[in-house]
Amino acid sequence: MWKRMIALGFEGSTNKIGVGVVTLDRTILSNPRHTYITPPTHGFLPRETAHHHLHHFLPLIRSALDTVSNSPAVINCLCYTKGPRMGVPL
């Protein structure tokens, strides 16, 4: 009997930070995310975007795990965005 493999993934290469929990068969169990929105006529500055992501990162992980089981013990592997895009938010 196969154990259910579950991955926790992080994506934060642009203005959106997301945390996903998926199974090996590609079933999405959770996918909370938060978008950094700049004032009108301003672009995305890497430093401010990185601060936004840092502020929302742990709450998004908690939200994702709460949806699944509220325990990091169910996670078998971690996945993350390596690049390209803005390096500082990564």
TrEMBL record:
The lineage of its organism: Eukaryota, Viridiplantae, Streptophyta, Embryophyta, Tracheophyta. This is Uncharacterized protein. It comes from Persea americana.
